[in-house]
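Morning run. Coffee first, then this:
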Amino acid sequence: MSTVTSTGMSTVVGTNLLVRYALRRDRVLASVWVLVLVLVCYASAAATPGLYPTVSERVTAAEALNASPAIVALYGPILDVHSLGEVSMTKMTVTYAVFVAVLFLILVRRHTRVEEENGQTELVGGTVVGRDAPLAAAVGEAAVVAVVLGLLAAGVNVVAGLPVAGSLAFGASWAGVGLVAGAGTALACQFSASARTCAAIAAAGIGVAFLLRAVGDTSVSWLSWLSPFGWSTQLRAYGDTRWWVLLLYVALAGVLTGLAQLVRARRDLGSGLLAARPGPAEGSPRLSNAITLCVRVHTPMLVTWSVATAAMGVVLGAIAPQIGDLLNSPSARRMMERLGGVGVMQETLVAAELSVLAVVVSCFGIAVVGHGGTDEHDGRTEQVLATATSRSYSFIATLLVALVGATWLLLVTGTAVAVGYGAAGSSFGELVGSALAQAPAVWLVTALAAVCFALRSTWTYVAWGLLVAFVTLGQIGELLQLPARVLDLSPFNHVPAMPVEDFTAGPEIALTLLAVVLAVGAWARYRSRDIA
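And here it is:
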């Protein structure tokens, strides 16, 4: 609700202008992210009827999915096993809804705590803009993007042949998840003066919601109703649709937005609900080294990512041995026979899972480099360079942490997949090696992020666009019948698909050399350009 200050100006005046400004700033980020989500949604809806052409085959596949606790924990249950829509949207309903939530985390955080931390909010507040307008605009932008995403997702599902009513319900569930994630991030951004801490709090909220849904779907069923991701399943979009479930998203988003506004009104600009802890009077001598300082700054992030990738690896590894039960329709059996049998299908699934996890690990490398750009933009890099640290050493420290950290996460991923798969002896080592085989592609993506950073501190978002493009080529490139030379633009298409394929040194060496060349070029460019 709008209020009026002592000067007679509404506290939300200027909201519409800020919404338009935010949409303009995010036109590339939001458009690319939405496009990828929508295309993957269409790919899943279009591919499933060919794999399970009859109702009996769909029922058998759905029952096999529901019989696996690991798959249910990751994707959610199929409540109507006869529904083509539910089988088609198995991954989209819950797993890809997490990516939807992450998009809105990024958008809302960017226009609340990030702008407040770097002084933009204070600058805007000096104009004819109400003090509540920035928060209202961030939530308003999230609502606009959520509606567009929901409508597009519904539209492509209808085009792919799914029922109109169910597609509208499914699109509304994605929009609802976006609204809740945006409002939750708005609340999380009131707790700390640090944008990174606020992002961690918001991400933890998404993780808790996913965990509640996973536990509820596999054991204590009522816990699913405590999570927006659980509502996406309970909505039964392509079955006996419970339209009233959509009201839960709106209600929760409204409550979270109200709480965010309440907290915002009771804290000072630039501060957080949690008081910042003062550091020691004298820093550790070890932190005088740029590499040690960079490691110290990113250790909490690396620990969090290690836990997350380990959990994902164990779950995905546990799914692979059950692939034979999931693909037991005649058409699926013929496909398995052409590929070499169930054993090869299991290895193929593991290779696909490792490729997906490599993309996730690439996000860590880009994030570390992006933090370097943020530090430079906000003036923290100048403080480091005011010491005996050279700009070359500072750049090397950031790049080294990104590359070594990403390699460590691949090692954690391979170990976790092997544990979940139940591998032992040489098989264990083979799965770990399969994960590490993805390293050159991850290094190349990280090196591309370093190039963007070296060109300009604020250009690291371009690296996210490149990663999205690589993922899009890998996920739907063949479905769209794109030329091979276009598909080959993705580095992830060049690493050997171990363990289903043998290790080949040629592509690995080529990708590594290219990553080295890009990293050296980025280092040379960073040395010559102006800071910030």
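The two ends are 39 Å apart (CA to CA). Good start to the day.
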